[in-house]
Recover the amino acids of this structure.
């Protein structure tokens, strides 16, 4: 415990350090889809000089890319046919892996087989066995496949340092929650049909440090109404670290060292997928479903703090993509291609624009612009402003379900079939 406490104290001194901007987790170093990068490409198309490389990634997985230095990592899983709610028909064990691509060349430098699954659970055709996003740090990448397995890989050698495949959970539709790291702990959310809990593992050994069941009234006995896919976020409130985790019906803030619940907010909803966002003392939570799927909350206090809800919104709220908060504005692209902007202080709608298409990946903000990525391959770019202004409407060959990453001045995009590095190229003279 002393080692863990010391690590947390050291981390508190460097939070927000602009020198370390590796895209290390789902939605980036600030966990909110924003980037401080300058000069990212705005207009591009298939075959243009802006595409520095395009690497095929065999299989079928929706995990988003993460990066550390010149390494880009994704988790991967195979295309599985004959999916039925009973049991997938397999000719061979299902192989779950971690793939590393070199930032400079686009070449695959590691393809690490992590798990062979003989009797995998059913995964809905809109999901994959490799949907959770890895977490990477200096020397290690943590790759999570829900109850199918979690592993730690040495990023230099590709050697497996430890792995677990004994965390029980019937995902019923497949996994989606991503792993995160803080201090010496690796946090995993497993909210399935049968079990709903969050757990912390020792990131060096994989051993369980604590586990907490979701001790709330879900308002249903149907396990299908208890599932969730959200990734937690770590915040600091009044000098105290909180691990904020959304799931069906509620969000709980835990003490990250012990797993003790600090507060609970009951907001309803099911299948929560968006990652909470904390900025300027306000926590924004997307519950995905229910009468008011987006709420703003003051995350102070203990116990039941449902009365701390500042406002609620139900119009054009995405079920799968997360929001972007810039200054006092919230920007969203919902699943059916409706972009909107809300006042972050009041929840009042400022504008809405129907773009069309299907959007499941979360948007990106950089240099005053919002980038969105559709399943059809369309990539609209519009200004993060109180008036809607479309700046570009790009298109690539295949569609997107993974969320984007930023490395240096490049967009790193995972389509259904490829990984791209896209960078602004000076006009030829």
């Amino acid at each position: 415990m002393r080692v863990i406490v010391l690590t947390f104290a050291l981390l508190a001194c460097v939070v927000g350090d602009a020198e370390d901007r590796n895209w290390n987790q789902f939605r980036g170093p600030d966990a909110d889809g924003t980037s401080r990068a300058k000069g990212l490409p705005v207009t591009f198309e298939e075959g243009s000089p802006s595409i520095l490389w395009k690497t095929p990634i065999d299989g079928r997985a929706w995990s988003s890319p993460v990066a550390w230095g010149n390494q880009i990592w994704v988790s991967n899983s195979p295309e599985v046919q004959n999916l039925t709610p009973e049991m997938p028909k397999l000719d061979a064990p299902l192989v779950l892996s971690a793939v590393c691509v070199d930032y400079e060349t686009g070449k695959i430098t590691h393809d690490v087989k992590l798990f062979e699954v003989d009797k995998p659970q059913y995964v809905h055709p809109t999901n994959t066995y490799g949907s959770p996003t890895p977490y990477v740090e200096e020397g290690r990448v943590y790759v999570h496949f829900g109850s199918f397995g979690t592993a730690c890989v040495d990023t230099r050698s590709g050697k497996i340092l430890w792995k677990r495949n004994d965390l029980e959970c019937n995902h019923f539709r497949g996994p989606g929650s991503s792993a995160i790291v803080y201090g010496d702990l690796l946090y995993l959310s497993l909210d399935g049909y049968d079990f709903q809990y969050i757990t912390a593992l020792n990131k060096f050994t994989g051993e369980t440090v604590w586990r907490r069941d979701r001790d709330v009234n879900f308002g249903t006995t149907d396990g299908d109404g208890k599932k969730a896919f959200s990734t937690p976020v770590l915040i600091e409130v009044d000098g105290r670290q909180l691990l904020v985790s959304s799931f069906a019906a509620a969000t709980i803030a835990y003490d990250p060292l012990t797993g003790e619940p600090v507060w609970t907010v009951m907001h309803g909803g099911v299948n929560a997928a968006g990652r909470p966002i904390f900025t300027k003392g306000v926590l924004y939570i997307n519950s995905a479903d229910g009468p008011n799927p987006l709420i703003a909350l003051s995350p102070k206090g203990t116990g039941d703090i449902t009365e701390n809800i500042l406002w609620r919104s139900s119009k054009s709220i995405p079920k799968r993509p997360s929001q972007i908060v810039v200054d006092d504005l919230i920007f969203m692209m919902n699943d059916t291609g409706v972009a909107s902007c809300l006042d972050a202080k009041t929840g009042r709608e400022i504008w809405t624009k129907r773009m069309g298409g299907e959007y499941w990946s979360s948007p990106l903000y950089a240099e005053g612009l919002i980038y969105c990525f559709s399943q059809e391959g369309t990539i609209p770019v519009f200004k993060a402003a109180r008036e809607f202004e479309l700046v570009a409407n790009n298109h690539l060959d295949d569609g997107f379900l993974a969320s984007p990453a930023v490395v240096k001045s490049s967009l790193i995009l995972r389509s259904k079939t490829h990984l791209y590095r896209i960078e602004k190229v000076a006009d030829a003279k």
Summary: Residues 373 and 379 are 5 Å apart (CA to CA). Residues 2-14 form the longest helix (13 residues). Residues 1-20 have pLDDT under 50 and may be disordered. Helices lie at 2-14.
